[in-house]
Amino acid sequence: MTAMAENTPQKQSSSNFAGTFLTVANSIFVILALGWCSLVGMLPLLLVSGFVHDLSYYALYLVALALSTPGIAALFAVFRDQPTLFSGNSALRAKVWQDHAGEKDFPPDWIARPYVDPNHNAAVIRPYFRAYARVFVRSLIMGFTFALLAFCFLYNMQIFAQMPFGVYVTPMLAVCLVFLAQAWLISLVLVAEYPKAKWLVTVKNAVMLSVRRFYMIIVSGIVLAAFGFALVTWSPILFLLLGTGVVGYMLWASARWQADKLFVLMANESKDKRIIDMYSAQSRGNNFFNAQSDWQQ
């Protein structure tokens, strides 16, 4: 009996270690594989970056970025529902989905269904390209919308830089451009979350959300700067293959954290306990937004 009692903790310890090792291994595989898939989805941007090295052709870069936006949106969609990468809130949401899967009125059609089966921990390639197809049109529209806005800012910066008072205007335009870039990322999170949202409402709320928890912009900036420095200084192919998924996940996490303000409000406005539980929205939220009807069209 004593020997059996001594062996039980050892077995539990071995089981915990095996489970932890498998989770870590799956997480590394999922991050790497999603990075590789997103490189396919962002092929236009890769081609332009590889063959055009003159930044004066920024309009061409913006067009390539707009064409690559569905690839980034699909990456964000898979991050949303990939069970290996679940945070505590995401795991709770998946549990609510499964607990109410047989109910005809759940989930409502204004919330996107899961992009990844929660029972498949290492599912990557098929979910990514399914998500790509689901978000393609709406994310492409977002891509060209924000690319056009970015072009306006960059063109005006170019004009004002030639004027005496441009030294005062250009920095303000640059700050606006930074917030616009974060709003673009947030818009892709919203596209993945709300399949029936109107174009103008998505743009408006993405811009408004970009100024909430604005310190996340610093995180995104540091991540992109470090990634860009690594690509230019060391091996670009190596860092594209190994770092794209990690960078994508960090950008998604920062934009998702800012968009959480809207998710919580939407859940509370629905007055549906299942949706409130799904977003852990009980006793959270404020009146910063009031646009539920626009998101349920």
UniProtKB/TrEMBL annotation:
UniProt keyword Repeat, yes or no: no
Domain of life: Bacteria
Claim: Cytoplasm is one of the keywords in the record: no
Transmembrane segments: 21-46, 58-79, 135-156, 168-192, 213-231, 237-255
Swiss-Prot/TrEMBL keywords: Membrane, Transmembrane, Transmembrane helix
Name assigned to this protein: DUF624 domain-containing protein
Species whose genome carries this gene: Bifidobacterium tissieri
